[in-house]
């Protein structure tokens, strides 16, 4: 039944006007369906628009994040090259020093444990040589090392620490009494002190020399890059 068929008879004040309530209900139901359909379509359109805007915002945020990461990586690489160039001279100077210290830690060498234990002259010579391990520039860079690659930052920090410990161990050895570690009658307390300090010193020298070698190679590359960009 059409709405006009239901409503027209009541457009006048005729006493015979009787609403067809079943028809009215049908009309209202039809209108409700139409309104619901329109509302659903509007929600669908709004949802699509919201999704589109959200995707645009997400893509923009992703692009900004990627660009920020790219710039951060470039900045970190530049800082890393600058730090390596800054400490280049100290790393270069260590080459000969570690060579001399490392060559005195092998069996049969002048710095072998039995020789060091019973020779104050050898201890004094090693201690004097260790004073050439200068890490002033490396130490000044420690607050910045967390901003560069762990491989370089940690190696630089460890190298600086090992150089300080090498000097400390050699100072300890210089204070210990002379002892013949191979003699059964030797004071075993002195033997243990000398042996422990010497072994710790030897481990430190080998590790520090390896770090210096790796870092020096990186510093050469970094200096070359900086020279090419000038």
How would you explain this protein's 3D organization?
The chain is mostly helical and 230 residues long. 77% of the residues lie in helices and 0% in strands. The chain is built from 8 helices and no strands. Helix 2 crosses helix 8, helix 3 runs antiparallel to helix 8 and helix 7 runs antiparallel to helix 8.
Brief overview, please?
This protein has 230 residues and is mainly α. It is built from eight helices and no strands.
SSE topology sketch:
Layout: H1 3-7, H2 21-86, H3 88-102, H4 113-118, H5 120-130, H6 136-141, H7 150-175, H8 188-229
Structure keywords:
mainly alpha; 8 helices
The total count of helices amounts to 8
How many E strands? Answer: 0
Tell me what portion of residues adopts beta-strand conformation: under 5%
Radius of gyration: 42 Å
The separation of the N and C termini measures: 89 Å
């Amino acid at each position: 039944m059409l709405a006009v068929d239901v409503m027209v008879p009541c457009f006048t004040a005729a006493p015979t006007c009787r609403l067809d309530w079943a028809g009215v209900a049908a009309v209202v139901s039809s209108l409700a369906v139409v309104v619901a359909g329109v509302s659903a379509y509007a929600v669908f359109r709004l949802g699509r628009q919201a999704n589109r805007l959200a995707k645009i915002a997400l893509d923009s945020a992703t692009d900004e994040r990627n660009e920020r990461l790219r710039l951060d990586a470039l900045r970190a690489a530049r800082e890393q090259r600058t730090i390596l160039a800054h400490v280049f001279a100290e790393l270069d100077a260590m080459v000969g020093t570690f060579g001399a210290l490392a060559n005195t830690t092998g069996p049969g060498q002048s710095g072998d444990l039995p020789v060091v234990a019973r020779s104050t002259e050898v201890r004094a010579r090693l201690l004097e040589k260790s004073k050439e391990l200068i890490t002033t520039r490396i130490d000044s860079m420690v607050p910045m090392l967390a901003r560069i690659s762990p491989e370089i930052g940690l190696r630089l920090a460890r190298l600086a620490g090992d150089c300080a410990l090498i000097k400390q161990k050699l100072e300890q050895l210089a204070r210990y009494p002379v002892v013949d570690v191979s003699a059964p009658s030797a004071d075993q307390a002195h033997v243990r002190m000398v042996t422990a300090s010497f072994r710790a010193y030897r481990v430190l020298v080998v590790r520090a020399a390896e770090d210096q070698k790796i870092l020096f190679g990186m510093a050469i590359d970094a200096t070359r890059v900086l020279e090419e960009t000038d």
